[in-house]
Amino acid sequence: MTFNNDKAIYVQMADRLCDEILAGKYKDDDRVPSVREYSAMLEVNMNTSFKAYEMLARDGIIYNKRGLGYFVTAGAAAQIKKERREEFLKRKIPEMFRQMRMLDIDIDTIKNKWEE
Q: What pTM, to 2 d.p., does this model score?
């Protein structure tokens, strides 16, 4: 995985696991890779992976079964979509509209691109 400087690495890792849940790679109550496995897979320090998993567990996306590992919480995909939708509508859309106004791009142009 290539990391960027916009966010902390552990946040980008958590986002990736959420993307995988949304894509259906992991469904409700599926086991996700262990902290060690995810660290090796993404070539990062295990502490970084642990922070990502801790954050996801705190947010209710995954849960830990002692001795068995981490699993996807029932309804996690719906929760991720809801949170990302809210973030998109609150932060991304206003910035997009600001850019559209500055560049004289009308909504019909966006609609046409959407339909392509």
A: 0.83
